[in-house]
Design brief:
nine-stranded mixed sheet; 20 strands; five-stranded mixed sheet; about 25% helix; about 475 residues; alpha/beta
């Protein structure tokens, strides 16, 4: 069964006819009727579940997780201030041939199939959200490739649910529901595509179009373009993990960010078999890959010339994606307005070509994969590249703080570094994370990079 995508929903909304005004008395009568219908449905013992969907989330710590199950009912659920105990539902997941329980942590009614992050979630609606513990060992939605989650989850209600006054809302039953679909907010709004360059090399990509352009394809408004370059772990043929392995792409398409900075987000993926012909063995410097990437960007800008702001093309990359940034900037120094390279490495001899480009780089001092100073394959790491920029005449503003600080404190440190850069007229900033402060693995320095509104605001403020 196909869900209505954001684009379809927008098209439907745009052509809708305004509904007539409803009186207070009529609305109250409707609520009473709905409550009566709810009680009758619950008392009947019939299974009122119309469909079951998994809700997944891309988290900052390199995880794509199944975080909830959304049940859609044939009637509106109104708990009248009541609370559904997590023990009222049992959820099991069958992944990799193994079936095991998922831990239910919250259950509440809703009008949408999405997790409500408020401390007291829920509003009357036709959906029930069953939140699951993200720390469950079987919470993953992907390994290297997305896991086969079709019909992988079963949900069964094992206890009756009543309002505080004792009216039945949902009856337990002997049957379990299996998921019909998998919903990944934001990721689902990226269209899938591919590009074959003049040499016949093909790159898959995902594309997010700003909502203003979706609503009005004839608009002449111009939007920035954010190009994201994934790391080596996302090289695959699935055209998905460049969006779901980390938040390098989705953070720029989040509704709140798009309201502040509407933009195109272009996220290509390097295919298998793994190209490794670059000068230091990394993918985005592979001659075939880089040529196709440059053609893809040029062609996209040309084909969307009416709507792309060519003065605001941005590069964002992590690990080997950051290596690709340093290489691409040096080869196309007059194209990009700014870049965010994280945990990268590059050729120090080419830094003199990019002294004019605004860059905010970051790296963990104890990174065991891409060394902070030495980089990889004899090619210098971020610390050495920043020194090379300074030698070439660029003032670099440096800051160092823990990578596991709370978001507010982390952003306060970033804001202070930015003030320092502005006071000294520096357009290159470098954040280092001390040993032992980057959670999970010191290489994953980007866990807070894309959650940092100070850095993202800075990026969108740059223009050639």
């Amino acid at each position: 069964m196909r869900r209505i995508t954001r684009r379809t929903a927008l098209a439907v909304t745009a052509g809708a006819v305004a509904a007539p005004a409803v009186s207070v008395a009529t609305a109250q009568a409707a609520d009473t009727t709905a409550a009566t219908s709810q009680a009758r449905q619950a008392a009947s013992g019939r299974n009122p579940v119309l469909r079951t969907d998994l809700v997944t989330r891309v988290t900052p710590r390199n995880n794509w997780l199944v975080t909830a199950v959304a049940l859609q009912y044939s009637y509106r659920i109104d708990l009248r201030g009541g609370v559904i105990p997590p023990s009222a539902f049992q959820v099991k997941a069958t992944v990799g041939g193994q079936t095991a329980a998922r831990t239910v942590i919250r259950v509440y009614s809703s009008t949408t199939a999405d997790v409500d992050d408020r401390s007291q979630p829920g509003r009357p609606g036709d959906r029930l959200i069953i939140e699951l513990d993200p720390n469950d060992s079987n919470a993953w939605a992907a390994g290297t490739d997305p896991l086969p989650l079709d019909r992988a989850y079963s949900v069964r209600q094992v206890a009756d649910v009543h309002t505080p006054e004792g009216e039945p809302v949902l009856r337990a039953g002997p049957f379990a529901s299996r998921n019909d679909d998998v919903i990944t907010p934001v990721v689902d709004d990226f269209a899938a595509g591919s590009y074959t360059d003049s040499a016949g090399f093909e790159l898959d990509f995902r594309l997010y179009r700003p909502e203003g352009l979706v609503r009005n394809p004839q608009t002449r408004k111009r939007y920035p373009l954010v190009v994201t370059l994934h790391g080596g772990g996302e090289v695959a043929d699935n055209n998905m993990t460049q969006l779901t392995s980390n938040r390098i792409a989705v953070t720029f398409a989040e509704p709140e960010r798009q309201r502040r900075d509407p933009a195109f987000v272009l996220s290509p993926q390097i295919p298998l078999p793994r190209p490794m012909d670059g000068p230091d063995g990394t993918d985005w410097t592979d001659a075939k890959v880089q040529a196709a990437l440059i053609e893809l960007i040029d062609t996209f800008v040309s084909e969307h010339s009416r709507n792309v702001d060519t003065a605001r093309l941005y590069l964002v990359g992590l690990s080997s994606g950051a290596r690709g940034i340093y290489s691409l900037l040096a080869k196309r120094p007059d194209v990009f307005a700014a870049a965010l390279p994280t945990a990268g490495w590059g050729d120090a001899a080419t830094m003199e070509r990019i002294t004019h480009i605004p860059i905010w780089a970051d790296h963990s001092v104890d990174d065991p994969v891409v060394l902070y100073r030495e980089g990889r394959f004899g090619t210098p790491g971020t610390w050495t590249l920043m020194n090379a920029l300074e030698t070439a005449g660029t003032r670099v503003s440096r800051g160092e703080w823990a990578n596991d600080l709370p978001k507010a404190e982390f952003e306060a440190r970033s804001r202070a570094l930015l003030r320092q850069a502005r006071a000294t007229r520096s357009h290159v900033l470098f954040t280092s994370y001390p040993p032992g402060t980057t959670p999970v693995n010191p290489h994953l320095a980007w866990a807070q990079t894309y959650e940092n509104d100070v850095v993202t605001d800075w990026l969108f403020a740059q223009s050639r």
